Amino acid sequence: MNWSDALIQFQYDLGAPQELSWLIEGITYFIGAFILANAALVLALLLIWITRKVVSRIQDRIGPNRVGRYGLFQTVADAVKLLSKEDITPSTADKVSYLIAPVLAVMGVLMALAVIPFGAGLVGADLNVGVLYLVALGSIGIMAALMAGWGSNNKYALLAGFRVVAQLLSYEIPMVLAMLAPVLLVGTMSMQGISQAQSLYLGPINLGLGWFIFLLPGAFLIYFISALAEAEQTPFDLLEAESELIAGFHIEYSGMKFAMFFLAQFLNSFFLGAIAVVLFLGGWQGPFAGQIPLLGPIYFLAKTFFVYVVIQWVKGTFPRVRVDQMMSFAWKVLVPLVLALILAQMIIMKLPTPMWLNYILVLVANLAVVVAVLNILGKYFQREQVRSKRAFEPKSLIGVMQPARPASGD
Amino acid sequence: MLSQWGFVLILSAIAVIIPVAAIVLGHFLGPRRPDPVKNETYESGVETIGDTWVQFRAQYYLIGLIFLIFDVEVIFLFPIAVAYADLSFFSVIAAATFVLILILGLFLEWRKGALEWN
Fold it and tell me: Per the CB < 8 Å rule, is A111 touching B8?
């Protein structure tokens, strides 16, 4: 049963008049949306704490541990501190776009909550264009960053604003095309429909393990890499590269306006992980999720937090890429591969061969893409390793160094 | 289905109210000591020279244009994906040709150097 139907029924049971059904529905949706949005704010506090803990463990530090147990209230203290900071607007800024940008950034992220299914009947609005809706929301974030960069009237911010456009637009294409792969398989854009399609029946029992990652690992890998870039996480955090752009497009923002960008960024990486969970990792599906409805949200949150921790792990491990490497990786590796993948999937699934053979062919195509992407990444990191060794540890390369050739001509 | 969009509308209103409320609250709770130097553009302590909104790389326009082409293509692909089960083999071939033309377009851009960033 849907949560909104249950809540509406509850209000009728309390004695609400039938003729005011539009009002009842409005109140129900307001309650749902209010709880959802505020839960997201509390979640953001937790996410920032997780990030700091995970990254500090990777860097052999303890991380925040003073405020509250395990430093859990550190983020709350930070929020209070930001609340008490002066709200500065640069006198040369373009006031309108400067003020709208942080609001837009948070709005674009919070609205993604509407279509994320947390459980069998637990989805804000089960839109039949859910995936497309999420793609559309992605553009609001780009808008916000560009408006912030442009409106600040600051050269660092403007540079970062252009980089935002270049990076987010480039990675939007492979991400959206990778999201197309499960849609193509299920034939619906509804997030709930895609979650439900990932069940696996063993007789009458739903094991809930028919996750699309087992069939479409290539699409998942491309989605994951693009999501890292979309979430502005470290291998692709060129938008706020401290050593180049100070803080990126939000350099001129202080106090609560800055906090809004911060909030939007952390929630965005969590929601991109949540979308990955819905599209590829089975959503709320899992063993016995059909029998015990309570398990659905637990499975969903467990998987999403797992993906989030993996994103932080990547953040703590990989070095930042250069802007030209980043652009060429998107356009010369990811886009051709994902286009070929979609093309192959489209044709293979219509072949007159038996269905199980089609599935195996799709899996083979996906595995080929995984191998290709990992190969290219591996080569890149090997090259980088040799380069940094040359720069910092010349001794380690003595064995392969050639003696200098005598200069010819003199 | 319309009432589902009602939820989206209410959520979007809340999603606007939350950041606006936070920023307004921060504006009134924080100290207010404006100062002409403080309100200047930040540039690592140096006074800004010239206009910020200057000419910038044409490469960004190219990326924007290529993105536009591919985004429109994706919009066409989503309905095909949804109706995929009902399509005949030949309409899938037609759709595949459409994707193939775009792949060729990508390789043309590649050859022309539109994807180079230097």
Answer: yes
Token code pair at residue A80:
């209070």
List the domain boundaries for chain A. 21-84, 86-389
Angle subtended by helix axes A21-58 and B2-29, to nearest 10: 60
Domain residue limits at B15: 2-112
| CATH number (domain holding residue B101) | 1.20.58.1610
Collect all residues of chain A within an 8 Å Cβ-Cβ radius of residue B115: 327-328, 331-332
Residue A122 has pLDDT above 70, yes or no: yes
The greatest distance separating any two alpha carbons of chain A, rounded to the nearest whole angstrom, comes to: 103
Instruction: Output A111 or A241, whichever has higher pLDDT.
Output: A111
Residue with tokens 């987010």: A168
Q: How far is CA A200 from CA A77, A104, A297, A304, in A?
A: 45, 40, 18, 20
Q: Which of A240, A265, A252 is nearest to A94 (CA)?
A: A252
User: Which residue, chain included where needed, has tokens 């890149």?
Assistant: A380
pTM: 0.89
Whether residue B23 lies inside any domain: the answer is yes
Residue B54 counted as domain residue? yes
Residue B118 lies in a domain: no
* A111's tokens: 């609205």
Neighbours of A102 (CB within 10 A): 27
Question: C-alpha dihedral over A83, A110, A222, A131, to 10 degrees?
Answer: -170
Q: Residues A109, B50: contact at Cβ < 8 Å?
A: no
Q: Is A316 exposed, middle or buried (0-12, 13-18, 19+ CB in 10 A)?
A: middle
Which residues, listed in sequence order, are joined to residue A206 by a DSSP beta bridge? A201
Complex ipTM over 0.90 = no
**Total domains, chain B:** 1
Q: Is residue B63 part of a domain?
A: yes
**Cα–Cα nearest to A108, from A150, A79, A76, A145:** A145
Under 8 Å CB pairs connecting chains A and B tally to 227
At A222, the pLDDT band (50, 70, 90 cuts) reads very high
Coil, helix or strand at residue A116: coil
Four-residue CA torsion sign, A137, A172, A236, A316: positive
- Nearest chain B Cα distance for residue A25, angstroms: 8
